[in-house]
Design goal:
This protein is of the alpha+beta class. The protein is built from 16 helices and 38 strands. The strands form 9 sheets. The chain has a 7-stranded antiparallel sheet. Strands 22-23-36-26-32-33-34 form a 7-stranded antiparallel sheet. It is found in: Cytoplasm, Cytoskeleton.
Length: 746
């Protein structure tokens, strides 16, 4: 009994899954749309009729003749609808298409029927046949019927053949499409007739076919097309429509889908505690949302009231200023009026002057008229140069509130910063990682940024990806110190302001150098020809200026000449471990050699550096052939990469005997474009030198090297050229962030 009660409760709780999204009533003959949503067939016809499509409502013979098809038990909308005549619908369906606005019978490109799905709010393509090409969801019909029986929706099902009052139905017949009581069933299915072979079913309000039929060929579906995700019959398999598609028997599709559904349902039922926890979390989120929304309303109201108070205070101060200015002007104009009134005949100053003129005592007159004359003179001048003592205009009190009105009009909620854009041209890894970014043009400002980074070349740990994070980074650039050599780092940035954190930028991947970076300067004491080589003040760049000596040598080129090789060294020597440095070579350089060599051999070469000879000059090497053969297997004391005219020469001679003499095989090598920066990696213990593209860290050349003594960087020039050492990142005045630690270094 308890189990039965629980089943009824479960069935009652799923009622909303059984409601048609159009009529909001339980499904009646539901059709499966291509978007996998369901809708009643009658409602679908009504929707298509409202869209102007006629004759695409499906097969009218599928309408049940049971009491469920009467207007009193169908959707309220169906009672108000005038359906086309069945004979017309039958004729249109047999022809394969209907008539609707804009469609001509027999057109080459028939109009596609679009159905507005009420569940997903999208337009679904029904094809040319409309609803006639859709399957009925018989499973959903059975679930609806079981639900009706479990909750007793609609009361008992009555016999359709009894005389009034009808008895309760006990049987149903799919062939007759009617419900019967026991007596009526025996009466309408007599022994010895074809109807006696009809199999009785439970009484129902909706009669369904025994199985799904192909809407195109009216055959039972036996296969499932994985490509189209549609059930097909035997005839569909051989048609061109499904040519090359993956088709499987319906039993296999049934078993696979049932296993997936069972597995998913088992997982959900086995994690009911998790579901309940998430429901509690969502309910708590709802409560927090209500509280936060109310707080946000109060904050906005308070801020707007604050703006109103500021405006009211400003209004009062401005009106007070106008009032004071007005009173001052009125006082000045009133005084001027009084002065002019005193000049009228018989009043004020004029009357007093007339009385003084009547004085006959000369000394007394002079004494009184002296001051009076000055006043009369000023009054006379005022009359001649009359001008109001104050202006009546208050134009200087006009307010320009255009900017403020624009700000108030644009007043809106603060948005989080948009995803930053990492500047890949300025972001690179050397001794440290320099990361630079910017916000999009119309992004809200960010107060500070968060940088996240991790190595991608380490074994993945179980669980979510773990990022190292740096908080509250100011500015739009940062240094990441002490990166691991020979690694690949992925970095991303996001901004933050009062509204919260924005989206992350796109990930950027950076390769770190394969060895610790060697810091050095160019040493001008060895091998530098001050006439042809110019070293910068910071000793990190050198330029070759051939000048007059090369011009004179070129003049004697046909008769034989010597072209000197100008060499400049680094001021440090490597005696152990692995080292890496990078430089940029001017693409316009004529001939430049970049590499390393034994310090002792380089100094010997500077004392009497051999020259690059012209084709007409080939001096003797001074060694016999046996001595030369004996040293073939020995590692060379120099290893150089030859660059010229924006190209790199990669040849066998360059890797084996690329010395200062320049006698490396010029015809045996190939050339590659010169990258923006070249990297040199020296492995002292192994006696190997690798030349890399310092941007992508792609290997260019690897050479052996004699490391029996101190080895130092060297740069050779023949003709014009320039080399710039890559500046260490740590010398830039940027914010420092230490990888592996979490202490800020300002």
């Amino acid at each position: 009994m308890a189990a039965k009660r629980g089943t009824k409760t479960s069935m009652k709780n799923m009622e909303r899954e059984l409601l048609c999204p159009v009529c909001q009533e339980m499904y009646k003959q539901p059709l499966v749309l291509p978007c996998t949503h369901n809708v009643c067939q009658a409602c679908a016809r009504e929707v298509l009729g409202q869209q102007g499509y006629i004759g695409h409502g499906g097969d009218p013979s599928s309408e049940p003749t049971s009491p469920a098809s009467t207007p009193s038990t169908r959707s309220p909308r169906l009672g108000r609808r005038t359906l086309p005549k069945p004979d017309r619908l039958d004729r249109l369906l047999k022809s394969g298409f209907g008539t609707y606005p804009g469609r001509k019978r027999g057109a080459l490109h028939p109009q596609v029927i679009m159905f507005p799905c009420p569940a997903c709010q999208g337009d679904v393509d029904l094809g040319e046949r409309g609803l006639a090409g859709l399957f009925r969801n018989l499973t959903l019909e059975r679930v609806v019927e079981r639900y009706r029986q479990s909750v007793s929706v609609g009361g008992a099902i009555l016999c359709q053949l009894c005389k009034p009052p009808p008895l309760e139905a006990t049987k149903g017949c799919t062939e007759c499409r009617a419900t019967f009581c026991n007596e009526c069933f025996k009466l309408f299915h007599p022994w010895g007739t074809q109807k006696a072979q009809h199999e009785p079913t439970l009484p129902t309000l909706s009669f369904r076919p025994k199985g799904l039929m192909c809407p195109d060929h009216k055959e039972e579906v036996t296969h499932y097309c994985k490509t189209c995700q549609r059930l097909v019959c035997q005839l569909c398999r051989v048609r061109r429509t499904h040519g090359g598609h993956k088709i499987t028997p319906v039993l296999s599709a049934y078993q696979a889908l049932k296993d997936k559904l069972t597995k998913s349902l088992t997982y959900i039922l086995g994690n009911q505690d998790m579901v309940q926890t998430q429901i509690c979390e969502l309910e708590e989120t709802v409560r927090h949302t209500e509280v936060s929304g109310q707080q946000a309303k109060e904050e906005v109201s308070q801020l707007v009231r604050g703006l109103g108070a500021v405006l009211e205070e400003k209004r009062a101060s401005l009106l007070q200023a106008i009032e004071e200015c007005q009173q001052e002007r009125l006082a000045r104009l009133g005084a001027q009026i009084q002065e002019h009134r005193s000049l009228l005949d018989g009043s004020g100053l004029v009357g007093y002057a007339q009385e003084v003129l009547k004085e006959t005592d000369q000394p007394c007159f002079v004494q009184a008229a002296k001051q009076l004359h000055n006043r009369i003179a000023r009054a006379t001048e005022a009359l001649q140069t009359f001008r109001p003592a104050a202006s009546s205009s208050f134009r200087h009190c006009q307010l320009d509130v255009g900017r403020e009105m624009k700000l108030l009009t644009e007043l809106n909620f603060l948005r989080v910063p948009e995803a930053p854009v990492i500047d890949t041209q300025r972001t690179f890894a050397y001794d440290q990682i320099f990361l630079c970014w910017r916000l999009p043009p119309h992004s809200p400002p960010a107060w500070h940024y968060t940088i996240e980074f991790r190595r991608t070349d380490v074994p993945a740990q179980p669980g979510p990806t773990r990022w190292q994070r740096r908080e509250e980074v100011r500015g739009t650039s940062a240094l990441l110190e002490n990166p691991d050599t020979g690694s690949v780092y992925v970095l991303r940035v996001r901004g933050c302001n009062k509204a919260g954190y924005g989206e992350y930028s796109e990930d950027v991947h950076l390769h770190t150098p394969p060895a610790p970076v060697l810091h050095f300067f160019l040493d001008g004491r060895w091998g530098t020809s001050r006439e042809r080589l110019a070293i910068s003040k910071d000793q990190r760049a050198v330029r070759s200026v051939p000048g007059l000596p090369l011009l004179l040598a070129a003049e004697r080129l046909l008769t034989g000449c010597h072209l000197s090789v100008d060499v400049v060294l680094g001021d440090v020597a490597v005696t152990q471990g692995r080292s890496y440095w990078a430089c940029a070579v001017d693409p316009a350089s004529y001939l430049v050699k970049v590499g390393v060599g034994l310090e002792s051999k380089l100094q010997e070469s500077f004392q009497g550096a051999p020259d690059v000879v012209s084709p007409r000059y080939d001096p003797d090497s001074g060694h016999d052939s046996g001595a030369e053969d004996a040293t073939v297997e020995a590692s060379p004391p120099f290893a150089f990469l030859t660059i010229g005219m924006g190209k790199i020469l990669l040849g066998s001679g360059a890797s084996s005997n690329a010395g200062l003499t320049g006698r490396d095989g010029p015809a045996a090598g190939c050339t590659v474009p010169l990258p923006p920066r070249l990297g040199i990696c020296l492995d002292y213990e192994r006696g190997r030198v690798s030349f890399l593209d310092a941007v992508s860290f792609r290997g260019l050349l690897e050479c052996p090297l004699d490391c029996s003594g101190p080895v130092c960087p060297a740069f050779c020039f023949i003709g014009g050229g320039a080399v710039q050492l890559q500046e260490p990142v740590g010398t830039k005045p940027e914010r420092k962030v230490t990888i592996g630690g979490f202490a800020k270094l300002d």
